[in-house]
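INTERNAL AUDIT FORM
Audit reference: QA-55
Scope: verify that the stored structure record matches its stored sequence.
Auditor: D.O.
Record contents follow.
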Amino acid sequence: MRFKSMLMTALILALAASAALAGTKDMPRSNEGRVTFRTEAVRSYMEGFEGAFPPAGWNQTTTNPSYTWVQDFATPYEGAAAAYIPWQAGFPQYEVLSFDYLIDSAADEDHLIFATQGSIYWAVNANLTVEVDGVEVYNFLNEFTAGNFVWDMVEVDLSAYDGQNVTIAFIYAGDDGADHYLDAVSVDAGAPPPPPPPANDTCETAIDLQAQGLDSFQVNLCLANGDYSAPSGGCTGYSSAGNDVVYKIYLAAGESFVATETGEHDSALWLVTDCANTAGTCVAGADDTFSGQTEVLSYVAAAAGWYYLIVDGYGTGACSLTTVTVDAPVGNQDASWSDVKSMYR
């Protein structure tokens, strides 16, 4: 049983803390979320605001000289410095840092990459946007994915401007906003595409457990998509919004099937009979333990047919490198599993 009331209390406290942080304009200078996205040696172009400010080749447009972009050494994303702008109320700011660049896809120089942090709460008053030749390509308020005053790495595809010498402008504009930061601006190749999901990412491409012939194996659910979710309160007792993969097995009526799942995330296992209606045909499920513990699913087939095992997780996007073990009968004695599985009956 999950202690939902305890989770709700924790959530309320977390939200209260977030609200308090969101209202802060310039106190928290956090390096949380700081990672090395790329090293300078492999970047086609990189500006970390380490030297003269504004940097050579950059232009600065100032409407409020006392509250405009400056060099800051307190909270860099990488290196020793970042660009920083303080907020002001009652005097509108329109402060721009810009540079020109020839976009060249053939040279892998067609993605704008930068780190930024600020406050979503106050961005409704004064916001950071990025423009390419006057066209907005990024809006902090609408697209920021990290927390308040937590560094977020942004990547913008500029391949549509291939062959053009463009002006890339970082614009902080508004009145009574919050402090904002910018660092690690580069023009480079895009991040490599994510690896493809596992072959059995969906029910339609489920791997036949008997044909696979393994009683224990691992799968990286973080490479998979979250295609299915068990019905809330149904066969697992909870919804399962984690990343999932699917295996299948043919069972005769009365045959038993046992499977376990162990991963660093909060695992969930469920067994269905119809790929077209997974939520409606769940016959067994397991979601009784917590992160790092083992879920055990056990089922005796009510009828002969194909059964689909969905290896899943409880929370949205939950995933880890997961170990699955199975103990199932094998109807076809030619299958490679028959002798092995007989030891587990």
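Auditor finding: record pair retrieved intact. Residues 105 and 281 are 49 Å apart (CA to CA).
Action required: none
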